[in-house]
């Protein structure tokens, strides 16, 4: 039996969630509440010592890292619906896109998200309460990020991340001008992983993502949102606000 641990349907938590729904795999879904810092509780760190979501438990075998989980599902649980191209070159192109989203696109969007939203999780904590929260975080870099979220990210950092977001959405829009999907002429993990970061940017980053400046990216986002599995995810899994 598969057990999937995640936050709500967005960002890295959304990637394997979409893969699970698209493939029609049965799984038990354990939703963690980031506002209660459940991913830093001892019981969850016994599953993933890094205290991060998502994580997949496949009969006692734990797989972490969102894109790795997606690839694992394709390897260990093949279904009639494939989310990777068969052609080796096309599959390599798919992985270039998933690598790019993990190493570049996700990070710039994440920093702005932390500044706008995650900071609100800790703004009302006392200094002592906040220090207790940070002490439970096993990854030193994440401790730094939580402290920045509470204190405020440097403006020059936020400006640079917004510049990178502009570069990212133009890269996607330019490619999608000539391609229906990102790799191999098919809906694949490349689309799932990038969509999980890009979805909703036409609202949260409307100065960068809109029908005038990035029409092909908006078309692609809307097209993926019309997929039955995607609709089911957003209908069945509570969103975080």
From TrEMBL:
Residues 1-81 form the GST N-terminal domain. Gene3D superfamilies: 1.20.1050.10, Glutaredoxin. PROSITE patterns: GST_CTER, GST_NTER. Residues 87-241 form the GST C-terminal domain. SUPFAM superfamilies: GST C-terminal domain-like, Thioredoxin-like. InterPro entries: Glutathione-S-Trfase_C-like (IPR010987), Glutathione-S-Trfase_C_sf (IPR036282), Glutathione_S-Trfase (IPR040079), Glutathione_S-Trfase_N (IPR004045), GST_C (IPR004046), Thioredoxin-like_sf (IPR036249). Belongs to the GST superfamily. This is Glutathione S-transferase family protein.
């Amino acid at each position: 039996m598969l057990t999937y641990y995640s936050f709500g349907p967005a960002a890295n938590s959304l990637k394997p969630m979409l893969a699970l729904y698209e493939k029609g795999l049965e799984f038990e879904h354990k939703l963690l509440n980031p506002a209660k810092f459940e991913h830093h509780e001892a019981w969850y760190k016994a599953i993933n010592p890094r205290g991060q979501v998502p994580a997949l438990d496949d009969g006692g075998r734990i797989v972490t890292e969102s894109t790795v989980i997606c690839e694992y599902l394709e390897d260990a649980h093949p279904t009639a619906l494939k989310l990777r191209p068969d052609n080796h070159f096309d599959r390599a192109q798919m992985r270039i896109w998933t690598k790019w989203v993990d190493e570049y696109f996700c990070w710039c969007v994440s920093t702005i998200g932390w500044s706008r939203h995650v900071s609100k999780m800790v703004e009302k904590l006392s200094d002592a309460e906040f220090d207790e929260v940070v002490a439970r975080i096993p990854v030193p870099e994440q401790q730094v990020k939580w402290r920045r979220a509470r204190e405020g990210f440097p403006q020059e950092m936020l400006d640079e991340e917004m510049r990178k977001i502009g570069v990212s959405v133009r890269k996607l829009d330019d490619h999608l001008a000539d391609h229906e999907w990102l790799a191999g002429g098919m809906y694949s993990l490349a689309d799932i992983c990038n969509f999980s970061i890009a979805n909703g940017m036409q609202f949260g980053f409307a100065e960068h993502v809109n029908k005038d400046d990035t029409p092909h990216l908006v078309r692609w986002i809307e097209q993926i949102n019309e997929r039955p599995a995607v609709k089911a995810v957003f209908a069945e899994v509570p969103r975080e606000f």
